[in-house]
Records
---
Amino acid sequence: MYLRNDDRPQGSRLSLRIAVLGGVAVALFGILFFRLWNLQVLSGDKYLAEAKNNRTRSFKVIAPRGEILGRDGKVLVDSRSALALQVNTAKLPEDPAEERAELARIGSLVHMSLRQVRRKISEEEEVAAGAPVTLRQDVGFDLVAYIEENQQMFPGVAVQRVFVRHYPRGTLAAHVLGSVGEISEEELEEARNADLEPGEMVGKGGVETTYNRYLRGQAGLTKIQVNALGEPTPGGRLIEVPPTPGENLKLTIDPAVQEAGESALAAQGLPGGFITMDVHNGQILGLGSSPSFDPSELITPTQAQVNALYRNESAPLLDRATEGEYPTGSTFKIITALAALENGVITPNSVINDPGQLCLGEECFENAEGAAYGALTLVPALEVSDDVFFYTLGLDMWKTGELQQWAHQLGIGRPTGIDIPVNTDGLLPTRHWRDQLFKEGETERPWSSGDNIQLATGQGDLQTNPLQMAVAYAALGNGGTVVTPHLGLEIEDAAGRVQKEFAPGPRRHLKIDPGTRSVILEGLHDAAQGPGGTSHVVFDSFPIPVAGKTGTAERGVGRADQSWYAVLAPYPDPRIVTVVTIEEGGFGAESAAPAAKTILEAVFRHKLEATAESEGEGETPTE
């Protein structure tokens, strides 16, 4: 007789169930045991360290930036203490609606939208969770008083002292100095900024950018102990490493020359730029652009201020001295003369007849105001700025490319190596450039002799600026060295001890025959101070001998001519080059030449004062 399952004793089934449940319980207990053993024994040190870290907060303390000094050692930029508006996100309302309302109120105080506030908080918490988030630096005392009086409306909002840039000389050398601003997402991805975090301040243009690693210093560190709510505990400051201020940067800029140049441009009331540079080592004594801007307005700009600067039709942020793109008019003629002499196209005694125009078929190129100078050699051609003489040289060199080769070697249309950011290298028109455009359907014709004729007098498609022209003139002045223009002179510590000097070597050396240099300088000297010179009216009584060239560049129908002046001083062994351009300033001697004279008076102020004293005492001054 067999028993069915249903016929088994009830006790047997109960024992089986208990055994199964017991086995499951033992298995779960084993898993729990091994998990606890892993946490406490194998990973105990790791989790202990994390637990300790949860009780501390680390905050980076930003260092004050170093000072920027003129070559006279006087401050152009330093740092001052200011107030920053910060938000402690741990103290914001827990209710989402209330948090949103408070963030919106905070944003309205500092001209930020709710979206901008949230993005700012998100960026800083990614790298420093729990640290106060700085929404705006350099807030006014009125805003601080309002927040303190209405603290119940702004839980978690506090004011902290920070350092911001201060400009004791106002707008002086604004384009040289640049500004400082919060690091962008794009800048954070650059290798040079690998150790920086969102919210930190970096240079934004000018020497503030180039020498940022010296100026920004080393950040400090503060570590504090907090409770479970993230609030500092009494006496909870664990570590405090003070920041190391940035080093000081001394510039080559002579404030007196800089001020004279900016004042000379401002007096014209037209956009323009200037540069004054040592022809032997490339040290820039002055560099400016008009209109300019106030760098203090960029410390914590509102969106409206940024828009006003970038949308301003006068383009105050554009550095016309280094980034302008202009034809140069007759100031380019020294390059044409160099190319022609050095390549044997003419000699100093070659005679070219000027009947008043040069005609190619039905197209004629005329002198300014219909003048005709007859038979001329190079020196008098430079003195009176005879266009037909140089048109002829351009025509003679149009197939060989000699003119472009010399212009390129002298730095036209290529990087100069200057130690501030420059966004354009201009354009040196060549046969290859135009023929390629024609091939691609971007222009109606290939390169022609007329293009070279125009280039020979600094017209046509040429696009350059005072900086490149200063480099070219400096090479003529020093005998063939293409210098590297620079603004950084040295790095100093807080005590004024020199830590590093900047003396970049030349870009290249050109072989210029001394006779070639001498005859061109003679022509420029006669142009500036000879009886028939184009700028004789400006420099005739100037006590220091100079060699200068006017330029009058056409810039299209309906626009007044652009005024240029380039001058080397003293003649015949120049030490200084100054180049000035003024948009719609007319003939070169009308506006650019007087501005250049003002600048040279600042450069040679000590010598001019000594000369004046000698003449007052009845003595004959000597050069």
Note: The CA atoms of residues 414 and 425 lie 5 Å apart.
---
Amino acid sequence: MDALARIFRKLGFLFHRQKFNRELEEEMAFHREQQQKEFQADGMTSEAAQHAARRQFGNDTRLREQSQEVVGFRAESVVQDSRFALRQLRKNPGFAVTAVLMLTLGIAACLALFAFVDSALIKPLPYKDSARLVGVYESIAVFPRSNLSWEDYLDWKKLQKVYSSFDVWTGGGFLLNTPSGVQPAMGARISSGFFSTLGVTPVLGRDFRPGEDSRGAPRTALITYATWQNLYGGRRDIIGQVATLDNTPTTIIGVLPREFHFAPRGRADFWLPIQELNGCERRRGCHNLYGVARLKDGVSVATALANMKSIAAQLEKQYPDTNRGQGAAVISLSEAIIGDVRPIFLVLFCGAALLLLIACVNVSNLLLVRAENRRREMAVRGALGASRTRLVLQFVTESLVLVLSGSVLGVAAAYGTMRLLLRLIPSDIIDYVPYLQGIGLNPRVLGFAVLVALLAVVIFSLAPSLRLSPSNLRADLADGGRGAAGTVWRRFGSHLVVLELTIAVVLLAGAGLITRSFYHLLHVELGFVPDHLATLEVAAPDKTYAKPDQQVRLARQMVTTLDALPGVQSAAVSTRLPISGNGNTTWIRIQGHPWTGEHNEVNEREVSSEYFATLRARLITGRFFADSEDSTKPNVLVINQALARKYFAGENPIGKKIGDTSLSPDSIREVIGVVDDIREGGLDEEIWPAVYYPVNQSPDTDYDILVRTSQAEQSVLPALVAAVHDIDPDIGTRNPLTMVQVINNSPPAYIHRSAAWLVGGFAVLALLLGVVGLYGVIAYSVSQRTREIGVRMALGAQRSSVYQLILKEAGWLTVLGIAAGLACSIAAATTMGKLLFGVRSWDIPTLVSVAMLLGFSALVASFIPARRAASVNPVEALRAE
């Protein structure tokens, strides 16, 4: 190890050689001159003193070479060692290709995943002093981080003492008039100080001014850099231009920076100030806003949370009807953006790091084998005068050549892997992880690659250099390659193989658990039949369809028109698709039931009369809606089984009345049916109580269309879009998808599927590398024990006993690796909580399957050298000795 350290410290000599030579000449001349003066002081002539000084000082050339050997090594030796290393690799192409390929795979996987970790967890958010930014939420039992109401926000902003600024935002969609027609445009509505709080300055134009979010102010907008380029061609005269959003002229006042993103919102083309409050925002009990704030200097997140909780408690007393049970939540903005994906990225990166570790272990194994085979060569070189440092230098050079080759190929493969993984992320998901779009070979990623390469060089150089002591070299020269050294290496290599097999078990178990989780996720009970279902989002202009009766007529016309399309069996509309997530909730109170002011929060959906039949949802009791049930008829609703179980345990819910918390007459509706639980939330979320209102009694302009088809649903999607535009060209359409696509592209399904593929790929490579490592150890063991096996067979040992001897050695290594791997797998699975669904960390079928797979693979890998051992000819084996 000391020899290696000295070598790496001396590498700088190559770059300072001229300076060293100059200083060396000056030093030698000074000493000669001083010696000459001493001789002259003793009475010698100047010429005699000069000759005497030179004789005493010694040969200049030899002294110069010795000095250079002390402080460094000459460039010639580096070139010589590099050429020798390349010749060695050319002579052993199998070793070279295997080692470089394993390094390439390990470095590529680790580097690609590190790039994702860097973009998500290391790279700072694109905001000024982002560590001072926090997300501010209300908190209730079912939503630990829920939306704010507009009235609560105003009170919080007035009473808070911990923020230098405090703003809110909410999502929004607009209909943009373009020369080619109306197009949906994603957007957001914000308070005027939002970008100032984030510390984001437009690259063109200006930010919103205070007061521009007040009612009656001119309507203005900021656009994203991508919108500026894609919709407006990057024209610099865009400032002051008017965009028509929802048939309302809107002046563009600024363009946001290229690097700006706000992941909680996802994609947003237009950012508008909150001016006109909608119906929800006028009520304190309706929550649709999210808060973002900048902490004052010296204020911690914990202090801010305490301040918000005290304000929430004050508002709860002041407004007991709307604010009962509502607390506060404050977390760092980075945690709000990255928190959900952090454990997923870390698990995947750990898998890639383990794969790199296996690759390094295997390459070290191969280098140890070569070192053992070159023991006599090293001994002869040492006997001829080569120092231990010089011998270690040769191993360092060979390791550098290997690592350089593997690193260059690994970096190239990593870049390709990054591009591939990015393309595999659906566009609607990438909108919510925009920080991944800038992924690439940035300085941090390349620095990590250099660090990995340096560590690999040290490991690969250290492994064969440990045994280059003078005593080992003398022993190697004496026995010509036999002796205890082979036994020592076998033991060391065996330990490495146990480590490899342990890591392989961990990755295989992780892949098995994630795959089983993904299977359970895709086979979770949905409460409807997803096959042959097509969906489409539509948005009608509010000004054209401002009145409820206009909205009802439009919904009926859409259903009638789509029903008549070829291949369509039935059509329906809903304000939200199934699997879209729990949310859009309301508070209910049951007439005749005891009530103490609690908030009974349930999912709320407005659906057409054909909705349940189109989904093929099962009616438990009662009936579904009739199309005639509109505002002229008594208000009715359908509930799901979860609501019936929770609020009507032991009684028949049909005929019961449900209203808002005050049981206002307009809110009271009669329960006419109970439907089987439809999974409204994500695939991995629990099923919430839900109420379904007839869309004819609660119409809207934004909803989703669902059609049940008799043919491939994908083929019907273009006809749906065309039919909607035939009804009204000003209606916006978005995301024509099949329900199967909706399910498969949902965040839980995508995350589990991606994790299963990635960890599964790592596991397959780990299994392959582990089995190759085991084969190498057993094969080397057989080669070292050829004489022993020959003697055994000469004395009458049967081939079966030789098989048993070799397979027993492999069996112990395999058992130790599997046992250690299973123990580590259970521990590692506890860190994968975000990726497991319906599976325990100690899932017996998965662990048993992994053990059997690895055991069988190890048996196959061990059988080949065992067969070779059993085929040894005793006479030839003894003659070779």
Note: The two ends are 35 Å apart (CA to CA).
---
Amino acid sequence: MHIIGTAGHVDHGKSALVTALTGTNPDRWLEEQLRGMTLDLGFAHLCFDDGIEAGIIDVPGHERFLHNMLAGAAGMELLLLVVAANEGPKPQTLEHLAILRYLNVQRTILVVTKADLLEAAELPQVVTSIRAGLRDTLAHDAPSIAVSAVTGLGLAELREQIRRELSLLPARNAEAPAYLPIDRVFALPGLGTIVTGTLMQGTLGVGDRVTLTPSGKQVRVRSLQVFGSPKQSVSGGARVAANVPSIAVGEIARGEVLASPQFESQDTFKVAFAPFASSLPALRRRNPVRAYIGSAEILGTLLFDAIPAREGIHAGTLHLRRPTIAYPGASFVVRRMSPKLLLGGGTIETNLTGTDGPRTELPAQGEDILRVLAAQGLEPLEVAKLAARANLREQAAQETLDRLIEDGYVLRVARPLAYVERAAAEELFGRVTRQLGTQSRDEAWSMGMTSLALARALSLPEALLARFLAHFAEDGRIAHRSGYYAPVDHVPTLTAEQRAFFEGQIPLDPQHPFTPASLPGVLNDLRAARIAGLSKAFDTLVAKGALVKVGDDLYRGTQVAQVHARVEQFLRAEQQMTMAQFRDLLGTSRKYAVPLLEWFDARGITVRSGDVRMLRKREG
């Protein structure tokens, strides 16, 4: 098996393409499907009649979720570069390509999506223009195919091109020690903990004793699956789900590695580094960095004997804040601490038996500021108060703080802007993730925890904790969805009993597809039912839009989505719509039509003018 990866700008149709090729929607989150935007890694299985098969990793296109993209990019061998015909390459397209040149991509196909939005005669010129915009990237000479996930145009040709490219990829080294970077962790009833990832090299078998890094805990593989099919053993290149029941979900996270015991954790590596051309002026002999190895993001320092002054390969040393494992030849990428710009990447050359990485030499005022912040603990200090306590001018304090943030010693939180020692924040982050892990394990059906619930569990003031949670979420280290915090890979999963309850509450009648349930009636039944976690499961379905409250009515999210589509189609054709027309459009009664149309007004989908509604005009 080989790994195909998607890349490209947000809203250029990556997920729709994967769905059209495989029949599997890679967007696991209901929120992703409702918003039409990938937030985290998605996976699908692609098989051909001649036995060739591949796993597809669909990555987020939005720059805010670049850390999630990097967590899945390490295993890619064949890249589907997705560019919309009506927009062409965007900055995020080029950023993805810049990152992927440092990883394991060996072959590329340029997929020009949304071809149905252009006239057939326009396509050749558009494809030529897109190719010109990809000059000097790893896609510059890639074969190109125009497709439409809506009409099916070009999909058969694309499948055949994918099959040809996969057949040319070399096999992974099955004789090497097993190395599997973990990108998802969850639990299944009766099985316990499941970890998933791309097996980068080696072979993994049922019954094998393997090590989790960086914890060093040894576990036994009880069972293996590849896209739902049980396996006794798997070889490098496979998308693997490994059942390791002897360890709790809360003890593992994305970024850890499941590997053969012969690997040793290290915090120092000799590397061959290739700088990104536009980042050459930012490089120094000592560079605080965010390093991406496997599925992990680890803070560290990249050192050179001499500052790289040109493109090419440069020898360096990578010191990490926490140990990990990496095999010689493994790829890595580094970004600046802040702003998170790409510096370059390369390969691990050798492991060095290391001690802690060197601490950047700081001027006296830096040490003074760190002493003040250390005494504050978790209480952030604004720059004026911090400067006074450190006996510094405010401007000098701010300049020193900026350097300390870049070097990774200080963290900045918002509302208002203030500063805290990173060590204290990291200790809090550990407490937060352990609590969230316990919650996601014990109540898999919940969205997570609110800031108030977390504050009570951790015995902290909510206002203080909320500032840190916002930073952790913005940094992509925890998920924040609809007011709830959760581990990044937490997918709310209702029990069979909970699902059956809600399915029965809003039965779908083909004769009256838009009839809702009574919200008070559902709530009364919910309180009377003796089903564990039912109230939180209801909150989850409402928060994610699977259930929608409209006044005293309760709809399925799919019903509301269908109504929305009908309203848009009608108004684009007719420009205006009366209440009576809306009622007839849905085949419903005025009792339900009035609050439903007012709900669309309140959300800015429609706008009322006298007795008619129109689509609200969108800026841009």
Note: Confidence is low (pLDDT under 50) at residues 26-40, 61-65, 353-358.
---
Amino acid sequence: MRRACWNASVSRVLERLAEGPPLVGDGGMGVLVSSAVPRLRCPEEANLRAPESVLSLHLGFIRAGADLIETNTFGANRRKLSEHYLEDEAARINEAAVKIARDAREVSGRDVLVAGAIGPLGDVAASSEERRAVFAEQAELLEGRGVDLFMVETFYELDEIVDAIAAVRGVSSLPIVALMTFDEDAETIGGVGAADAAAALGALDVAAIGANHGAGLQAALRALEQMAGTGKPLAVLPNVGLASMAGQRIVFPHATPEYFGEFAAHAQELGARIVGGCCGTTPTEVAAIRAAIDEGRRPSAPLVVRQRELAMPTPVAEGATLLQRKLAAGEFVVSVEIDPPRGGSAEAMLELARTLQASGHVDVVDVNDNPRARARMSGLMASATIERIVGLETIPHLTPRDASIAGLESMLLGAHAEGIRNVLAVTGDPPEAGDYPGARGVYEVDSIGLSRVIARMNAGEDYNGREIDAPTSFFLGVAVNPAADDLDYELERFEQKVEAGARFAMTQVLFDLSYLDAFLERVGGASPIPLLVGVFYVRSFQLAARLHNEVPGIVVPEHVQARLRDAGANASEVGLELARELVDASRERAAGVYVIPPFRQPLAALDVFG
């Protein structure tokens, strides 16, 4: 009799994947549980410590319209739990998670599918045999308590997800949904393209394949486009957008329900059979997905657009830097933001720097430090290379994410010896919330603490007050966001940065200088240090919508979005007009601008001044 019930359950899942409207998934349980329950060692501990909170979150997603909820077990394998000294609780945590999810289904009275969530180990040193043993143990626990299917999700390495699928299939015949995580280029951190992943996963005994977590809605849709054609049903459950750091808090952007509704329409058009969310996604977004599917909504405009990629650094001088001198003299400063290369060659970066310098429009370049928390050439080293070979002055960004205080001091001393003087202290993009490839941010200090490190080095001391051989002479800059959601908090941090020794500041990208006006009014009418305004040269409505909805800290007002949307095929020209207007308006309000050029077109920044 039990076998017959089990077969009926499997058939029910497969039928719902094959027929009718797409299934609506739930959202980011781990992030929400961690926010709701204080002092958890990991989100999965809440299954034992605060089951009522987990139950409440499940019910919130069900009431918002979810057809499928995932157990709070993403990191509940024995290997991950051992990092929190919870390995002996593996059975209790997994079994409790399934019970809570099933209880939520019973309380709601809805025919909701319960999926057992299985995430990667986060241990690159584990052998295939070791991985399979850990995955098999968790799968047995989840099936034993009564899940309907498995969500094997948020994998970056193809080998590991293949091991996970084989392990689950070795102990269970329940349907498996296999999900990998992709960036804006539809590649995993492990370098696996979405098409290649689909081909490999499509050949396995899984019920559906797709993308979850990752770099936001547009990135997930891009991956989904490339995963079609295997004959397998598709699933897409992305993060609400990019995670960001606000002091010690991880925050997500303010994607609107309308944006999620549009995402659901595109996902359905691409053939998705499961549409939901991951980190940062709440019942509000799930309700928008539900409404879009129930209404049979069709896409109103193209949504997928490539994310920008930025550029590289500049030079040095004795005494005051060019930036320092121009700011002191009240001369308007122009910078172009660039990314260091992803490979070991600096030639393309140097050629770009030469062209920007020869244009006569650019005073300095500001150089990112591992943007999106992905490894590139060190921003400090790239800047030193530019200044030494090209002679163009740079403002390297420096984040405390990737190094200890001692490591930061070491890098700064080396950069100073190479002639670097301008430095922008930034907290940096965090390793994406919920990722389990083993990466962790260092963050012994944040950007305020880093500013203090640099100020003390300028005074001839290290962070602990010990004398160094010779003082540094860095010209310290910091970041500030006049359009922050919590402006009081942003003002408090800005004041602390100025007190720590900041000499200039660079704003978050602004699309309307009324935010700057309001900010300046709050600080007494004028900034205590010179400000460079961030101007993003956006060439499409789709990118503007993505920036507003998916990137924390960036606000693209509706009137700007409407202007780009109404321009249609002429959006590129309108985007250039907007950028030029912002630069011109900044001349009356700020000490300068830094321009972020269109994706992979850094020289287009010069058009803004043409």
Note: The CA atoms of residues 399 and 426 lie 5 Å apart.
